[in-house]
Structure formats: C-alpha cells, structure tokens
Amino acid sequence: MLGPAAAGLLISWFGTATVMLLNAVSYLATVAGLWLIRPAELHRGARRPRRARVADGIRHVVAQPDLLLPMALVAVVGMLGFNFQLTLPLLAKTVFHADAAAFGLLTTALAAGSLGAAFATTLRRGRPPLGLVIGTAAAFGAVQILAGLAPTYTMAAVALFFTGFASVCFAQAANHRIQLGTDPAYRGG
C-alpha cells in the first residue's frame, strides 16, 4: 500500500527514471531469495500415474458446470476488468489532471481495498458457493463503473478502494471455488 504512494512522491521529486531504477534494484532481493532456495528441501506429492493433457482438462471443466461458470467469469473479468495498469493512469491524468503524487494516492486507495479484502477472505472456510463468485463479480463490475464515472478525485479514490476490495474478493472466491472443486489429477504439479 505504501509503495504506490511513495512512488508517486518520489516521481514528483526525482523523476520517473530514478524511481524506475530504484524499482529495478528492489528486485535484487527477489533474485537473491530465489538463489537461496535449496531444491533438496522441496517436497513434492506422489507422482500421478498418467500425465493429464490439456484436452483432458478442458473436457473435465466442460463436464463440471460448477467449474465452467467460474472459469468463464475469470476469463471475462480478467480480460475486461483487471486492467488497472492501463485505466488508472488515464483516469488520473486525463480526467482529474493529477500529478504523480495524486496518481500514487489513487493507486494506494486501490491497494488498501485489496489488502482489506485479503484479510477479509481469510475468514472463509471451505469451498465458496457459486453465488458468492457471481455476486463478487457483479459487485466488482459495479464499483469499477462507479470509479470510472466518479465526478471528483475524492469520490474516485473511495470507489477505487471498493474496487480493490471487490476485485480481490472475486479473485479469491473464484480461485478457491475452482481449486477446491477440481480433481487433483487436473491441478498443476
């Protein structure tokens, strides 16, 4: 949450190139973490007797209506709704004529909502019902439309908070519904 706000301030003070360089340097920690992984300590499940093919997976999903709808929703929402990297800078610059710091605050509002949803979804136990997947997809679409139509910067920030919340709620519900309803032979491994 603090990253986008800090990046907005740093861009306004030092420029985009410097902030991009700092971001690139920050990935060295990830590279070091990956380098420190000891493969001998990783444990895999039992091997499957037969390797599942993509066609087998598609047949499995089509034969399971409780998997087909969430998969379709993930495809549609993923293509049309999860495009924040494109729409948020345009909203900030062309609609609200905001600078980098104000853009960072809009991004922070979205991130704060996402974080709140991440905490809220940890309360769920078991496979989420299909109605929850559909409801969170609809809520995500509704609040995203409200964010796009917000007449003021403050209202957009509030709508973006709820957009972040709804997006993570939907993603988690769909993911858990699909993962917990899929035969283990068709999961990644």
Distance from N terminus to C terminus (CA atoms, Å) equals: 32 Å
Radius of gyration: 20 Å
The biggest beta sheet is recorded as: none
The backbone outline, from C-alpha atoms, is globular
Please give the count of helices: 9
Share of helical residues: over 70%
Structural class label: mainly alpha
Low-confidence stretches: none
User: SSE order in H/E notation?
Assistant: HHHHHHHHH
**Could you tell me the number of beta strands?**
0
Give the mean pLDDT.
Answer: 88
Proportion of residues in β-strands: under 5%
What features would you describe in this structure?
The chain has 189 residues and is mainly α. The chain has a domain of 124 residues. Helix content is 75%, strand content 0%. The longest helix is centred in the C-terminal third of the chain and has 29 residues.
